[in-house]
Amino acid sequence: MANLRDIRRRIKSVKNTAQITRAMQLVAAAKMKKAQDQAMAGRDYSSQLNAVLSDISANFSDEVSHPLLEVREGNRELVLVISTDKGLCGPLNTNLAKKLRAETSDTADYVTVGRKLRVMLEKLQKTILADYSVNDPVPFADARSIAAFLTKQFVEGKYDKVSIAYTRFVNTLTQVPEVIQLLPVLPPAQTSDSGAISGDCSDSLFEPSAEAVLASILPLYVNFQVYQALLESRATEHSARMVAMKAATDNAKKFIKELTLEYNKVRQAAITAELLEITTAMKAME
């Protein structure tokens, strides 16, 4: 049985850990609200972009063309992987890694945002073309530079497909890993549920022409898809970390109670043993 000094040290250590996890929980909660608001606000803009693209695809598909719409037969794939720089956010990165292995080519090359999955890909000896660091909160300029690099690789014919692997924010307790196709741009009706179409542009009139509008809106669409994926990933990171740190704090408090109970039992046993020794000595002196 552990002595009193060892138990006191363990209680002190667990209390210090609980203070740290509690502080991390509060920091994550403060960042989480802003990140969630950004992610949710961006969905409305994304849905309107989807609506415009859907209308052009439905009504002018034979009249317009663009390099970002070119569907190719090859299987050369480039994947943008968005993970976290830090850990302590539960199974967030692990779930994304499983999704990545299941839905991307074994010969795919990668562009990474976040250290966690970059390290994993390096260990697997995958080709990483570029690694980006994104500020918090996410500025649109960071997304634009990433999107420009991905677009350049596709337009120059180095890759036939560009995808994004990220974690979509559902709510504070639910985050869903996803792999979506970025390039070539698919008609919005073929995108996943996370890019659901809203709005009706069937009566829209495009000036100067549908092709000119498409040439302007497609780069913006690609930029915003990357930006929205970054926002969703950042919201899920703070949410997952807040939940993980709350669970760690609760477990620490529970462990402290158990250690305190054990400490009291050991202390009581020591007191009882001392009393028995005193009583025995007194009896022996009679």
From TrEMBL:
InterPro entries, per database record: ATP_synth_F1_ATPase_gsu, ATP_synth_F1_gsu
Q: Which SUPFAM superfamilies match?
A: ATP synthase (F1-ATPase), gamma subunit
Q: Does the keyword Transport apply?
A: yes
Q: Does the keyword Cytoplasm apply?
A: no
- For this UniProt record, give its keywords in alphabetical order, as a comma-separated list: ATP synthesis, Cell membrane, CF(1), Hydrogen ion transport, Ion transport, Membrane, Transport
Where does the UniProt annotation locate this protein? Cell membrane; Membrane
> Which Pfam family, giving just one, matches this sequence?
ATP-synt
Matches recorded under CDD domains: F1-ATPase_gamma
> What is the predominant subcellular site recorded for this chain?
membrane
Membrane topology category: Peripheral membrane protein
Q: Which family does it belong to?
A: Belongs to the ATPase gamma chain family.
Q: What does the protein in this record do?
A: Produces ATP from ADP in the presence of a proton gradient across the membrane. The gamma chain is believed to be important in regulating ATPase activity and the flow of protons through the CF(0) complex.
HAMAP family assigned: ATP_synth_gamma_bact
Cite the record's note on assembly. Answer: F-type ATPases have 2 components, CF(1) - the catalytic core - and CF(0) - the membrane proton channel. CF(1) has five subunits: alpha(3), beta(3), gamma(1), delta(1), epsilon(1). CF(0) has three main subunits: a, b and c.
- Report the protein name in the record: ATP synthase gamma chain
Q: Which organism is it from?
A: Luteolibacter algae
